[in-house]
Structures are given as C-alpha cells and as structure tokens.
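Protein 1 of 2
SEQ + STRUCT:
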Amino acid sequence: MTKTPTARDPAVVDRLSRRLRVQVAGKPQRGIAVPAPGFAAEALQELGRIQLRSDDVEQRTRVALALERGRVHLEGIRFSDLCRLTMATRLACDVLWVLLSARARGYSAFQRQLAEVPLDLAFPEGAAIRIKPISTASVAFHERRLGELVELEIRRRGYRPAESGDEEPFPLSVEIFENRLTVAASLAGEPLYRRGYRAELRATAPLREDIAAGVVERTMSFARVRRPDYFPRTVINPFAGSGTLALEAAAAVLDIPPCVFARRFACEQLSGAQGKGVRFARRRLLEDAAERLAPAASVHLIALDIDGDALSAFENSARLFSRALRDRIAPGVEVKVVTRAADCLRESWVAAGDSGGGDGDALILANPPYGRRLHCGSDLAELFQRVGRAAMLEVERWRGYRDGTIAGAILCPNESSWRAARGAFDASDMAITTSHFTHGGLDMRLLCFASARRQGHWPPPQVQEDTVGTERDSLGRLCS
C-alpha cells in the first residue's frame, strides 16, 4: 500500500523549501500597504524612503510604488524587503503580500483561481486563518458569500477558520473588485498601529498610532516647506490624553522603527529560511536606527491634560517607550518627559516644561476634546476658538525667547470647529494649511501652522505672562 505523503515527510519538506527559494526568495513579489485613512501620500513617501535604505543597492530604485484606491502598491520587490517595510513603517496599518491577482468573472472562474492560491507558501500546516472578505463593484459576490467560499477552500487545504480563542491567527485578505480577485496574506498579523508600547488606554476615543504618526509627518513636512532644516527637539502636547501624539512625535524625531517595541509580526512566524531572513531583517533595522542616532540623542516631551489618570497612563507608556530605545538601540538615547495635570485653556503650555534657556525648534500637537470626550454641552466652536487663541499665545511666548521655528497642528472634528480655530491665526504672520483625514467615522480637519525663525531673549517678558493669564478661558468654565 502506497504511503500518503504528509507535510512532515522529508520529501514534502524538501519540495516546499525549493518552492520557497524559487517562488518567494528568488522572484520579485507584489505588495500592498494599507495607509492610515487620509495619509496615503505620506505613506507613499515614507515607504519610498525606507526602500532607499535596502541592503540590495539595485533594489533601492527598481521597486515601483504607486497609489491606487488609497493604497500603496509595490511591484518588483524582494520578499525580505517587503517584510522590512512591514516592520519599519509608522504610517501603514497593514502590509499585504499578494499571493494571487487574476480575473475571476463568475462563480466557476472564482473557484478555479482560488484553487491556485499558494497558501502553503504563506501559512504553516494547520494554521488558523482569519478571513477578511472585501467585495467592491461586484454583482456576482457579496462579502458574506465570498467569505463562505474562501472558508470552504481553506478547510479543503487542511487549514481552519480562526475562532475567538485563537491568540495569533493569520489574516488573509480576499478582495473582489470589478471581477478581479486579489488574495493577499498580511505580513503584520495584528494591525501595525498596535505598537507595543502602550501600558494602558485611558482616553474615551484614543487616537490610533498610525493616524497620530500621519499627523506628525504632515505637520513636520509643512514646516520644512518653509524651513528645510526644521528639526523639533521639543514636543508640546496639550490635551494629551494617553500621549499617543507625543510618543509618535518622539518616534518620528528620532526616526525609530516600530519593530523596536515588544510586538510580533506575522512574517516572523514563517518556517525555514524565510523566517530566519525576516528575523535578520529586524536586527538590521535596529542596527541602522542606532547608526542614524547621535550618541546622546534626546527629545523633550511636554504633556498637559486635565485628567491626571490619563497622564499617569502616558507616563507608564513613556517609560516602556524609553526602555525599549535604551535596551534595543542605544543606551544614551533620552526621552525627557514632563507632565502636568492642568486646564489647558488656563495654564501656559510652554511654561509647563520650562527648565531654563536654550534655542531650538518646537512642535505643538493639540487634539482637543469633542463628542464623548468633552462631557459637557458647551458650544464646540467656542471651545476651538479658545484653543486657537491659546495656541497663538504659546507660539508668541516661544518665539519671544527662543531662536527657532515653532510649528504645530490642531485636530478639528468638523467645519465649525475648524473655522473657529483658524480664525485665531488670521491676523498673524503664521503660514497655515488645512487637510482632511478620517478618525472614528469623522471627517477630521487638520489645521497646520508654522512660524518663521525669530531671534529672542531669555527670560520671557513678564507682560507675556500677564497676557497668557488674562486672555485664556478655562476649560472648566466652558463645560459649566
């Protein structure tokens, strides 16, 4: 009686290893990066910068990157570089490895193409697979039916659909768009915005890390249009909540890849030589980050919020963040953190972190409360008008005694709040711009501003202290 081959048979293992070398390692691949909503252009630029650091000199310019339907498509990329992008990007929530892309018009064609997907190259034997069906502009399939057909196919191949108790299932994206079938394996596993440095969540509607990174990238890029050497070493974060904006700003300033933090990636769980190559790529990313950092690189974070518990959560996350940098990149890297439980419409943001003189650029990132975070019935436009005025006062205070550029952003949840905040800058010499992104189902406005460089003096004039005290309106009074 002939013995039925199994995945443990040496002959089967050898054939799979040869296929991995030929079809994966030895052949250009296709990938799709899924950016944070509203930040596709920034993600395209970031991925291009990461690819230019590839170990393979020819690969640095050979890979084609293009935006299509809000996603970044990568053509002709090595599998190891695709995994490298997965572990280095701050602006994407997932990176997909395309296993198959083909026309599939009708039920029979779909089944034929689905049977051709090389699932064994992407997933270990018997793995739990979490199916993500997407059907767009297709009359033949709706998402529920699409998911059912894919589930039947993966069961036929010896895999199983993920269940609620599975800790790390492998995500599989199956998309039908205008009769084109695209099947892709996630190289991230868990969404990439789950960095691994959060100690706990305290905010009612926390800002996703990839969206926060997009806000930081767009704001700093705007400032560099006005002054190309803009490089903030001080980050001021009023209405900080659990500090996502501040920590993502620190990662951007220090150019830290997310793989420095304690999280796993699906691409690291591949078997054989492929998995070893991915783990080597992670080590190389950390070594490259250490080489780019100055021996005593530092960034100063100033965080204010009326919620002391949220600030405590931020301090815990900042400790995990700093420990990861010291342990895995460079012992001399320093993230200085100053927090103050304060009414951000009454107290000075800059004064909260003052420890003496000094020059340098600064970055203000304000995500004021709205919706459930506000917990009051006050007029949103009035609140954001006060926030805009407070931001202008802090800009003038900084420019009064520092030689440097100060830039910033205010996140506005609707048009009325945006108009109110923007009005505070009408009579100033600040450069301003507005863009849109999506967060929590809201069409958000990002109001970015940047100052010119100005010589100043230390300490600041007392009259500015008085102005700050008299012009501000209390968040508590607004909510009363």
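Protein 2 of 2
SEQ + STRUCT:
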Amino acid sequence: MLADAASGSASGGSSCSWQCRLLLTSGRPELLHLPDPRSYFSYNKRMICAAVKWLHHVVVKTSCNMLPGNVPKCIARWLTVGPLSDRGFYLVLSKGETGVQDDDDQRERASRITLYEVAAAAGVSKSTVSRILDERLPRSESATAKRVRQAASNLGYIRDVSAVNLRRGTTSTVGIIVPRLTDTVMAMIYEELARACLRVGRFAIVATTDEKPEAEQHAAETLLRRGVDGLVLSSIKVGDPFTQALRARGVPFVLALRTNGDGPASLGDDELGGYLATRHLLDLGHRRIAMIAGRSFASSAVARQVGFRRALHEAGIGVNEEWVLETNFDLDAGADAASSLFSTEERPSAIFAVNDNIAIGAIARLASLGIEVPRHVSIVGYNDIPVVRHLPTPLTTLRVPFDQIATRAIELLDNVSRSANYEVRLTAPTLIPRRSTATHRP
C-alpha cells in the first residue's frame, strides 16, 4: 500500500508542512521518500528515526499498523539510506533481522519491485529507468545511469521480461539450428551466437539436426511453436528448399557459416581461406598438394575447394583429381583419407584438410604408418579450434572469426523485416602458421 501523508502538527508540534511517501507491502522492503531533508532533517540516523517515528504515528492513525511499534529504538539496524539527487533521500527498511533470507522470499520480493519504485529511489522518471535498464541499448556510464543501476540493485529489482515482451509483441528469443553440438565448430558458432544475442537483450535456444532434412524441419517447427522471433540456420545444405518454405510463411531467418544461396547470410570467406591455405603450401615449395575436401552439400567446403583450385591454377599447376577426396567432416574421415592418399607409390608432399578434425585424423593415421608431419608431409587445417595449438605438432590452420560472423548474423536478423534485399556478409579468415607445415625437401 502506498500512503501519502501531509503534516502540520502530527510530528509533535512542527509548523512546517511537508509530504512523504511510505510503501508498505508484506514480503518486501518499505520505501520512504522525504522530499527535502535539508529543511527538516539532517542525515544522521537519530533524526531519520524521528522521521520514521512520525510516519509510524501517521500510518497507525490511518489503520495501517505494519510497522512495529518500537521503530525508533530498533530502526538503526534495519536502515539503508541513499541520496536522491537534490530533492531528498530514500530509506529502505527491512521488516526483519538483517542476514541471509530465504531464496523464495527474495524472489517473491524482487519480482514485485517495479520501475516506479526504482525511479523514485533514483530520483528520475520511469522512462529514464526503463531506457537505462534496457539491455538492447548501449550501456551508459553516466552518473544518472550508475545511480539508477545502484537503486535497482539495492531494491532487488528484476526485470519482468515476459511483461516487456508481451508489450512489444515479441519473445526476445532466437532459434539456432546446427547439425550437432559434438562438432567443435558448431558448438563454437552456437556459443558466439548466444553471446551476440545477449548483447542485444535476446536469448538463444538451440536445436540439432544430425544433417537430416526431416530433423531440420522438426527443429524449426518446435522452435517456432515456442515463439522464437526468428531463426539462425547453420545446418542448411546446397540446394535445400527449406528457406523457401520459411519465407512463404513469413518467418525471419538468417544463414550462418553455410548457405544455399537463398537468403541473408553471414559467412566466412571460405574461398579466400582455401586460397590462402594452398598459397601457403605453394610458397613453401610444395607442388604435389592433395585436398581432403569434405562433403559437397556444405557450401563452406565447396568454396574452400574453389579457392584451392584457384591457387593451383594461378601457380600453373594442374589439379590431380585423384587427390581431391570427398569425405565426411570427422576424425575417422581424415584418417581414412590419409590411408588412401598414401596407399599408392605416388604420394602428395602436402595436404589441405577442409577442417581441423579431418587434419587431426589424418595426422594420427600418418603417424601410425610411420609418416612424420611435417618432415614427410605438410598439413594445413581450417577453423583453428582450440585443441590444434596443443597438439604434439601444432597445426597450421585458418582462423575463422566466429564472433564476428555471429554478431553480423544477429544484425542481419534484426534487419530482415526492414529490407527486401538479401544481404550476404563475408568475414575473412586468417592464416595461422604453426609447425605442421615446412619447406618442401625433394
């Protein structure tokens, strides 16, 4: 209950007229706002207690007896005081002993604190509080913003996201669809997408498909039934018509890492990456270069192969098609491909693996065959997953800036409804030379 009181003589003879507000609700703190303490009270606790005693008298007279009768004697241990700009100060009064409180009580109390109460404590308008606490906006470090955040923290304010979303007609959630989270690259892009969502006040929900079209459709339907505002697809395959179905239904979506050429996309510049990997091996003197190429349904793998072929063509070297192997993307695929490449008399002096897992599998199999990296063969991977720098022979690879790709994907998702054009943003990878590549020795 919010009680407004005006006094002339109720305070024990004071002829001054002033107003105060006392918020009394069971299960949470009481908030007291005194408009101009400089005129009537000092900031010391004794005088504040006198004010509370006076208020108690007024509240009791109005039949609201929630404050204990001995407030003036025990208020000191229950009192928190803070400045309220130049118009006054605020008091937060706890109804019980200070110390650890029950978690359920804390949640119940915090869930009831409103923007109005934070605004009163900080001495600003409700709209100012709303703007400062809006996670979608850049964080302000002004004195007012700091005061608002401190008041919200003191009061235990927790933003009611469901109410905000109901007012906006959104859920502030984004559905992320990836093939699997056991794949380090897909786990990394999901984590970066989740961080990018949080930076703009959204929350990411993930679903996996195991590269199965029916699972992709089921994942999308499940996420849409849960009210996500849009989808980020990292599972799309070349030629997949799924994006057409989403567009026909008016579902906002963005493609990340992979594309079918039919929608806004945030991608790594995979053709450039394939070119840089191959150019690195050429610069080391290698001319017999093989590629473990992954699957052609992944646009990223296709583009890396285009870059591989372009680099060889510019160097005047023909591509040995028997050394371009289409495989899965896992460790076993790399091991099997290495066995195949080194089962004949003519062998490559260098290998470009379309991802790091394939490269790791190839290195392990070559070691079992007595073939040393880089003494007998140089190997370049792709993605720069964390483990490759810690291998016995650290892997030369292309570093993909997953954080930038994710940030741009969420930006594109926000722009989907405002633009009729499909924008594709490419982010360049960086070659990271390590000890798995060396100068060719004939």
